[in-house]
Amino acid sequence: MRLKVILFRAAYNLPVTTGLARGVFARHGVELDIVYTQGSRMTIDALLGGECDLGVLAADDVVFEVETHGADLFAFMGLHAGILHLVARPGIRNARDLAGKRLGVDDPASGFALVAHAILERLGLRRSEYETLSMGGHEPRSKALREGRIDVAISTPPFSLDLIAQGFTLLARAHDYLPRYQASCGVATRRWAGRNADALAAYVRAYRESVAWALDPANRDAAIADLAKEFGLGRELAGSTYAALADRDDGLFPDARIDVEGIQTVLALREKAGLLATPAPDPSKYYAAG
Length: 290
Fold this sequence. Notes:
The protein is of the alpha/beta class. The chain is about 45% helix and about 15% strand. The chain has a five-stranded mixed beta sheet. It is globular and about 55 Å long.
């Protein structure tokens, strides 16, 4: 069975890319065509329009689309709790230095924008004190920060670690402020999943086998080599990127579980921002365990 999957270009795709290279998906009877997205809107449109079968979105994106547009989307697999870093341009020493500056996000109404707002507020900067701009996914946001079109962004390895190595300022790790958060998820439409239950189950089995391989310390060197090849990274940056993925608290979920408490955090952030009615719906509205 052939599946078209739309992904953000980020290191947390390691279980997919290395699973393809090592024939894991093929052993489960799955062939994958990978498309890389420029942002969550492109992913959502591709899934709802039937151009792609599976994708990756933040759990917050799923909540936003279901509640705002009645979208036929659900999360079937949890990938990680964020592996997110708030990175600012050189010369920015703390959050107060960002007053009057520009935060780059994927979509100001969803995704990790609310995570950035929550962290900056905890660091003493009100949302009204800076501008929030849509800059697309992790790679385009990092490029915009490097080029000076924004002053701060939420980013993920290897892009965040590369920026930090170049002298950009690490203001915060999201995990230190939101220890339970469901970030990226495997996502599909319920319509497609209902017609393709066997294909979805095979994909989940292959992913879980591949993530177990990637996180096995015995495979560390091979996984680092895969990251270096995929992103054109030097050995040191590939190694630090792998360490972030393998972090037991903030890295890839070894069983690809949905973190229900993490979804509750997503809902609480939306409630606080006035973007979701109180009381919030039960988290089960947005996911079905794979």
